[in-house]
UniProtKB/TrEMBL annotation, chains A, B:
Subcellular location field: Cell projection, Ruffle membrane; Cytoplasm; Membrane
GO MF: hydrolase activity
Domain Thioesterase positions: 119-175
PANTHER family per the UniProt record, alphabetical: ACYL-COENZYME A THIOESTERASE THEM4
Domain of life: Bacteria
Taxonomic source organism: [Mycobacterium] burgundiense
Family, per entry: Belongs to the THEM4/THEM5 thioesterase family.
Membrane topology recorded in Swiss-Prot or TrEMBL: Peripheral membrane protein
Reaction catalysis annotation: hexadecanoyl-CoA + H2O = hexadecanoate + CoA + H(+); dodecanoyl-CoA + H2O = dodecanoate + CoA + H(+); decanoyl-CoA + H2O = decanoate + CoA + H(+); (9Z)-octadecenoyl-CoA + H2O = (9Z)-octadecenoate + CoA + H(+)
Keywords from the UniProt entry: Apoptosis, Cell membrane, Cell projection, Cytoplasm, Fatty acid metabolism, Hydrolase, Lipid metabolism, Membrane, Transit peptide
Main location: membrane
CDD domains found in the cross-reference section: PaaI_thioesterase
Name listed for the protein in its UniProt record: Acyl-coenzyme A thioesterase THEM4
Length: 208, 208
């Protein structure tokens, strides 16, 4: 498990983002429509032919495997395929994580694609988001790779679909272990709490 | 939080599934291609116009909100929008959960859309899948609605992308609380373990 790709020039990274991010947003919107449509059989068959034609065009030039994590020449990580923050992953909300050094947070909106109980966020989606955000806090904003050791999640009540906020911070660091906490809140308060232990892997313990 | 929609006739449910499931699979394949494509700006712009046109056609006739959980007249739950098992949710792998009464399990394949560390499953995706599968075990195959109270997840090592298996079972039941356990395994053994407490909600405690 290594991050070995050649770094991408920062201007080229900006060009790629301008090209792919709006397209990914269009596919994200399609996911929502795919779940909610009541279109009839003929319309769905036509839509399927269109989608398959687009996919074939996209696949004519594609990387061999998954996206991985690429870096720019300025050292910024491009986790563009990530299922939580990836600007090229249509299944990511995506979270745009902000940080003041001590805490990191994101405000986001979850719709039909993230539903478990009717009108509520799937409990596992809350776990996915908290795992990611606690990991970001533990990795000091992505500067040090970390892996989740353990995470415990407590559901105080159902989390409604719609506008939400998540926040995470490190409680303490003990050698290679960082102890992080975090919450998801709706407009009336906290709905889910998480505690996690994150580990810095051997190969990342020396400065890059 | 209620399951109040009128039940769907079983034949109509089969017709809907035949119509929407292959289309959803096509959108799922598009998600993978969206992450991995290296197509140029003109091709991406053309692809975006095609996708937006399809989305507009789908949205011309759609339900007002998220999918929810519908039931057939035979009492089968149709969690078709669910992000883990939903046959109409392109972000779901989807898991096809089997059960022998005591245990439930699923074999599935995770690709680029589920990647965290390079070539490995995002820790939060493992949490999403385990939360769902432990919940299925605790709800006796979906017959009793349950909500996650707490879940603790332990990562033994990285989970590689590719062919995986997840399994869950109930360890014990104590009143309205079910204690469930589960694991994710790759070809060489267990990569992630989970323990969860699931709660039967008040409104579901009397027989339907």
């Amino acid at each position: 498990m290594q991050f070995t790709d050649e770094p991408v020039d920062a201007d080229e990274a900006r060009r790629q983002r301008a090209r792919y991010e709006p397209f990914t947003e269009a596919v994200r919107d399609l996911i929502d429509a795919t779940i909610r449509t009541q279109a009839g059989a003929a319309d769905i068959a036509a839509a399927q032919r269109s989608i398959e034609a687009v996919t074939a065009r996209l696949r004519a030039t594609q990387i061999d495997g998954p996206y991985g994590v690429q870096f720019t020449t300025e050292g910024d990580g491009m986790s563009w395929g990530n299922p939580v923050i990836g600007v090229r992953n249509p299944m990511a909300p995506p979270l745009r994580v902000e940080s003041d050094g001590a805490r990191c947070w994101a405000e986001f909106d979850l719709g039909a694609a993230y539903e478990g109980p009717p009108n509520h966020v799937h409990g596992g989606v809350s776990a996915l988001i908290l795992d990611h955000l606690l990991g970001e806090a533990a990795s000091a904003g992505g500067n040090t790779p970390v892996f989740t050791g353990t995470i415990s999640i407590k559901y105080l009540r159902g989390t409604p679909l719609g506008a939400l906020r998540a926040e995470a911070w490190v409680e303490r660091v003990d050698g290679i272990k960082s102890y992080a906490r975090g919450v998801i809140s709706d407009i009336t308060g906290i709905t889910v709490e998480a505690d996690g232990v994150f580990i810095t892997p051997q190969w990342a313990r020396d400065p890059r």
